[in-house]
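Help!! Second protein's tokens look totally different from the first
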Amino acid sequence: MRACSLGPAGKVSFLFAAALTVLGATGASTGVGEQQSGCQPYDSTWIGELSEYQALASDTDSITAVGRTLFHLPQLPKDSVSLVSDSATCMRAVLAYGRNLDVPDTITPRRVILVRFGPTRYVVGDPHVTAGEFTIDMVFDSSFTTVLATFAN
């Protein structure tokens, strides 16, 4: 996601792009190179993405509600959505993400962004796995069982 706030038109565009990816192919391209697996270090990009997910969780308008339903995410207070950096949780996210790629790959080292949605959901994305200009994100439950295999963010 881009580090900006979405107005109603942006939410519609975001949801439309995500729905197309869910319904379409996830022709992911990777180019992660040599690196250790785990979570991405925080920077302004991820803080912006966190803000977008906090809005998705907490906004009450009908467009956002459709997005939450589409992505199987709960409505939560904004402060219930947070970035995760715990190394054990990050490694579980990396493996779950790799298992759900079009061509499963749990061997390639990857650095993901991991967002916790309350006690029941995680959103995982690898900035090096994309569909066009969008990052491929996945939704997992608290045990990293797949809830939604892919959507473009």
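Here's the second one for comparison:
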Amino acid sequence: METAKRLTQEQIRGFREDGYLVGKGLFTPEEVRALADDFMQMHAEGPIPGCFEPASPESADGDILKLYPRMMHPHRVNDLALRYLLDDRLE
């Protein structure tokens, strides 16, 4: 399976208008798996103040978003996240 090398002008315009972009095929399945595994490892190692602070299972009241909260600025604490943030394919 061949992946896209760069974002198209239409994708960039859509991102600027909508505030998000789904870049199917932009990264290989192996790259996506490596990033997901890395984030799961960060989660397993515990909270990172200013980045994410998950609740304990006992205090989450069954709310999955409390167990896996959104990470803020992971590129500030994780080299792999920074590498993908700066990846040429996102220019």
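Reply: Different proteins will give different token patterns, so don't panic. Residues 29-44 form the longest helix (16 residues).
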